[in-house]
Structures are given as C-alpha cells and as structure tokens.
Design goal:
Blueprint (H helix, E strand, L loop, with lengths): L1 H18 L9 E3 L5 E3 L8 E6 L5 H19 L3 E6 L12 E3 L3 H7 L7 E5 L5 E5 L5 H9 L2 H7 L3
Parallel strand pairs: 3-4, 4-5
Antiparallel strand pairs: 1-2, 3-6, 6-7
Helix pairs in contact: 2-4
Length: about 160
C-alpha cells in the first residue's frame, strides 16, 4: 500500500513537472522586403503563424490560406507574423495576407519534422511552440491558440 501511495505521489510530481516544460520553437530566417535577414527570435513578443508546405500550390496550403483570410482581421490586431516555408518548390504566397517566405524552406521543414506534407506551427509571444499539426486549421482555432497561450493569459491577469 505504501509503495502504491509513493508511486501515485511520484506520478503526480512527474506530471506536474512536465506541464512546466516549454518547447522553444526552432528558429526560422527570411529576407524582408528591404533585403535584410530577419529571424523568428527578432519577433519575440509577437505570435507567429508558420505554414510549412512542399510548395505554394498544394491543396492544403491554399485551403489554409482561405481559412486564414476569414480570421485575418482579428489576427492582425494581435500583431501576428505570418511566415511560409516551402520544402520542395520555391515560390511566393499569393494572398492579401502579408507573408514572409523562409530563406531555407527545406531546413525549416527538417527542423519542424515536416518535410513531406503540409504543417502549421503556432509560436507564442514567448518564442515557444504552442501548437503544431499537419492538418488545416479553422481560423478561429488559430485565434483560440494565440489568445489562450500562457503568455497572453499572464498579460491579461490583474496585478
């Protein structure tokens, strides 16, 4: 009985320790419109939505763009940075949403373990990877992840 109690106590302490572990997002680089290299680390304090796709013409990438358009106004008010990384075919994003294109898409795909398929990563204001999936997300789900991140919730608390 004492052993069972000890295991339960250890299980609780181990699971609570895992809840505090943050996963820093792998860094991404891109060239801005002025020709200067920028990095994900430079945007700490702003949420980042990173789309990873083999090319800008895949169905999933184009469908995700349509999902983002419906939420763009709300995402824009939160200063969200949008970045695309193409792992197999270079290209640009044809959208009214301003996207930066990663300088080395294959490396970004490798770093995020998304070289063959579409993926989306949501990086919080603290630079941690808050959400990652290989499925197209509704715009509202992206808003929910950003609004419910640890940093956003902390900033909203009263002192």
């Amino acid at each position: 009985m004492k052993i069972l109690f000890l295991l339960i106590a250890l299980g609780i302490s181990v699971s609570s320790a895992h809840a505090l572990v943050a996963r820093p997002a792998p860094n991404v680089q891109w060239v801005n419109s002025a020709g200067k290299i920028e990095t994900l680390a430079a945007f700490k304090g702003q949420p980042v939505v990173l789309l990873i796709s083999p090319s800008p013409t895949t169905w999933a990438f184009r469908f995700q763009l349509t999902r983002l358009k419906s939420a763009y106004q709300r995402l824009g008010t939160q200063n969200v940075v949008f970045v695309a990384a193409f792992t197999q075919e270079a290209g640009r994003v044809n959208s009214n949403i301003p996207f930066a294109v990663a300088a080395d898409g294959p490396k970004v795909g490798f770093d995020y373990d998304a070289t063959e398929r579409f993926a989306i990563a949501i990086i919080g204001r603290d630079g941690n990877l808050d959400y990652f999936t290989n499925r197209v997300l509704p715009g509202q789900r992206i808003i929910d992840v950003i609004e419910n991140s640890f940093v956003t919730q902390t900033l909203m608390r009263r002192p």
